[in-house]
Amino acid sequence: MDTALAGLHCDHPGVWLYLLRTLAQGQPVSLTNIANALKMSLSDVEVALNTFADTVYNEKGDVVACGLSLLPTPHAFNVCGNELYTWCALDALMYPVALDQVAQVESSCPVTGSPIRLTATPTGVSHLFPAGAVLSMVTPVMQVGCCNVRNSFCSRVHFISSTEAATAWLSRHPDATIVSVEKAWQLGYAVMRQRLEEAWTEDLGNLDTYNTPVVSNLHS
């Protein structure tokens, strides 16, 4: 777990958290809004976002994906009625912790193509279908950081429908490991708590700005 925590660290957790919670409302996020909300200069926002190399922008230059995505991926993520997506299966498990909301997750097994559904909450996972579904994990590259891992990490972190399908996946991806969905949630929880604590100590202006309408309780 320590290796994963180090590899999934975030250089600008306050900016990342604001992006996550604003994207969760289902709308693109402008750099000006980030700067105003966090009391940062526009140039400092640009510097911070440059460290999130995988961030996706629309034609206006607004952020549309930074882990949580307005653009379709294999991992559908419905929170507060907003149809969103995540870059990987682990994201879908850990973002409800930072959002302090329940999310309905639907993905598809990369081996069988069969659907996998679950409810992800700030305290765990429920209603997993099929019950025997597991998760493929790889070790993130050290010091790459959050939102720089879409190809090296996210592309290989999937929900797998069964242990039999997991065996077939491992035969094609020998660097992966298979973990239970519960264990993966525990890892995601640790990553999110670390980022929340770092955002709290980062002192980016008034942290009440993180409490977007999607979020009910940031500091619990």
Detailed description of the structure:
With 220 residues, the protein is α+β, with helices and mostly antiparallel strands. It has 7 helices and 11 strands. It has helices at residues 2-7, 13-23, 31-38, 42-50, 89-99, 163-172, 181-202, and strands at residues 56-57, 63-66, 68-69, 75-79, 82-86, 103-108, 115-121, 124-129, 134-137, 159-160, 177-180. The strands form 2 sheets. It has an 8-stranded antiparallel β-sheet with strand order 1-2-3-5-4-6-7-8. Helix 3 packs across helix 4 and helix 5 (89-99) packs across helix 7 (181-202). The longest helix has 22 residues, at 181-202. The chain is globular, with a radius of gyration of 17 Å. Residues 204-220 have low confidence and may be disordered.
What are the defining features of this structure?
220 residues; three-stranded antiparallel beta sheet; disordered C terminus
